[in-house]
């Protein structure tokens, strides 16, 4: 079987995508992962994800003088390194990968007994399966010589990161609209939808960056929240602390009477109710600062969390099925539900018609990596407007924003 290896230089193409049951999937492809990891004490495994679909392909052994770091690599073979640090794949896979040259050291094939040394590069070549996203189009709103604005669908990452490369806004725009290069001016979380501004050259991107750093931009979002939100404008000015281990933020009010310093960063968001039907409210959200999950955690603090945000909703809703499916499955990294067997069987049939199965791949014959469900709902948080000195870009409201 002839293998054509792809690198970041290979652009996504329209035929790379498959639409199936409301989801956009990517045909699996052979890929030479290129990334560099410098481990830090006390444990590399604490700082790197171990999911098989997050396996890094190219690692640089650190030359740190820290003895804890040096001891981690002393006498370790290339197979033992992968098997111990990346437990998502079986030991036998790494043995086979080294033997057939899919794992190489400094570009060379080595024996399974090869012992790693500092400053060596380890390349991992594999059959890549990207996670699916919702099948909504990435709609181009404005196309100017220096700027493109789009309506980003929920569930689609902005740019290549982690497990995603082609199933991203940047990748889809390149494949379906021939728009490249693109420089995202700001970011939206994967599950958030709405206005996304992309510069078409580095000069324009740098101008936007200067305006952002100078505090010259105004941002507006809308959210669908639980209950009847207060009619009067509400300003939440309270620090936020992001817990990386749990993947969520929390408010940190602080206490002027205690000596212990707070960990949180200052955060401020203005909220204005747009409409309400007694069960839900549509709220205009204007973040003054830009902290991780700022709008979500500030709405939780008000007692009106986003109505399908399970990450911040649990304290307010006893029966989660009453508010719909979780929009943040990815937040529970260790809580990914088991794959629906009926969906997998159907997907296997679809996949067999669309790509060649790789005998060494631990994900084949599925289109998507194992552990992903058929359905995923976008968060009810949508960016509607960005404005700055002499310019303003807007995005239409989503369907959920119109209460009955």
Give a verbal description of the structure.
The chain is of the alpha+beta class and 404 residues long. 18% of the residues lie in helices and 25% in strands. The protein has nine helices and 19 strands. The protein has helices spanning 44-47, 67-73, 78-85, 91-99, 169-177, 202-213, 294-302, 310-313, 341-352, and strands at 17-20, 23-26, 29-32, 58-60, 103-105, 121-128, 133-134, 139-143, 147-152, 183-184, 193-199, 218-226, 234-237, 239-243, 248-252, 268-276, 280-287, 381-388, 391-394. Strands 8, 9, 10, 11, 12, 13, 16, 17, 18 and 19 form a ten-stranded mixed sheet that branches. Strand 14 and strand 15 form a beta hairpin. Helix 3 (78-85) runs antiparallel to helix 4. 34% of the residues are buried. Residues 35-65 and 317-349 have low confidence and may be disordered. It holds the Pfam family PseudoU_synth_2. Keywords: Isomerase, RNA-binding. Residues 146-300 form the Pseudouridine synthase RsuA/RluA-like domain. Belongs to the pseudouridine synthase RluA family. It catalyses: a uridine in RNA = a pseudouridine in RNA.
Q: Counting H and I runs of at least 4 residues, what is the number of helices? A: 9
- Based on secondary structure, the structural category is alpha+beta
What is the straight-line distance between the termini?
Answer: 57 Å
Principal-axis shape equals globular
Number of strands: 19
Largest sheet: 10 strands, mixed
Helix content estimate:
10-25%
Radius of gyration: 23 Å
Ranges with pLDDT <50 over ≥5 residues? 35-65, 317-349
Series of secondary-structure elements, N-terminal to C-terminal = EEEHEHHHEEEEEHEEHEEEEEEHHHEE
Mean pLDDT, nearest integer?
80
Strand content: 15-25%
């Amino acid at each position: 079987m002839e293998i054509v290896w792809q690198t970041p230089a290979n652009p996504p193409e329209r035929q790379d995508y498959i639409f199936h049951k409301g989801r956009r999937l990517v045909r699996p492809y052979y890929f030479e992962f290129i990334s560099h990891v410098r481990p830090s004490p006390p444990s590399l495994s604490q700082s790197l994800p171990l999911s098989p679909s997050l396996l890094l392909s190219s690692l640089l052994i650190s030359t740190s003088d820290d003895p804890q770091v040096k001891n981690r690599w002393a006498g370790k073979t290339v197979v033992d390194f992968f098997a111990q640090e990346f437990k998502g794949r079986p030991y036998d896979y790494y043995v086979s990968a080294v033997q057939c040259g899919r794992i190489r050291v400094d570009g060379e094939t080595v024996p399974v007994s090869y012992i790693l040394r500092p400053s060596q590069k380890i390349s991992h070549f594999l059959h890549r399966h990207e996670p699916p996203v919702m099948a909504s189009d990435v709609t181009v709103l404005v196309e100017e010589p220096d700027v493109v604005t789009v309506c980003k669908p929920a569930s689609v990452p902005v740019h290549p990161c982690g497990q995603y490369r082609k199933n991203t806004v940047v990748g889809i725009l390149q494949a379906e609209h021939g728009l490249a290069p693109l420089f995202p001016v700001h970011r939206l979380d994967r599950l958030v939808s709405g206005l996304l501004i992309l510069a078409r050259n580095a000069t324009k991107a740098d101008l936007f960056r200067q305006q952002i750093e100078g505090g010259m931009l105004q941002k507006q979002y809308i959210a669908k929240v639980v209950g009847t939100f207060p009619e009067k404008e509400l300003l939440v000015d309270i620090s936020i602390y992001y817990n990386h281990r749990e993947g969520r933020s929390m408010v940190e009010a602080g206490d002027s009477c205690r000596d212990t310093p707070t960990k949180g960063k200052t955060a401020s968001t203005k909220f204005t109710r747009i409409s309400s039907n007694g069960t839900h409210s549509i709220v205009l959200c204007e973040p003054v600062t830009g902290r991780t999950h700022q709008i979500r955690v500030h709405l939780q603090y008000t007692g009106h969390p986003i109505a399908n945000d399970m990450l911040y909703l649990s304290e307010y809703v006893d029966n989660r099925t009453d508010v719909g499916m979780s929009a943040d499955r990815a937040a529970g990294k260790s809580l990914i539900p088991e794959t629906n067997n009926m969906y997998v069987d159907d997907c296997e049939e679809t996949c067999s018609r669309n790509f060649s199965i790789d005998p060494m791949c631990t994900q084949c014959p599925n289109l998507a990596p194992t552990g992903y469900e058929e359905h995923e709902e976008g968060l009810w948080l949508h960016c509607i407007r960005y404005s700055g000195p002499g310019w303003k870009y807007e995005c239409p409201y989503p369907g959920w924003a119109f209460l009955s």
